[in-house]
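[step 3/7] fold_predict: job queued, chain A
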Amino acid sequence: MRVDDARGRLEGTSPRRGAETHAPRGNVDAAPADRVALSSAARALAGLRAEIGPLDEVREERVAGLRAVVGAGAYRVAMETVARDLIVDELGGLLAWAA
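[step 4/7] structure written:
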């Protein structure tokens, strides 16, 4: 992301050598307009974020159900399923890396 002030400077930098550093002539009351330029990657990320919605959304019913099961001591982990999912995730990552 690049942020320029009205004089063409990057925010937080000093003016370029030979650049005009005084207010523009004309309407002295007019405030200079700042500009922001987003990269294509930033625009793509913003689009994805808008598409998938908030990431911190909590499924209250699911959480309440899991709390009840754990509280009753009845929560059981299917170790085979966990192991299989870990292997599939790891192999998928290796295959993607090799491609």
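[step 5/7] annotate
The first strand starts at residue 2 and ends at 4.
The beta strands are 2-4, 35-37.
exit 0
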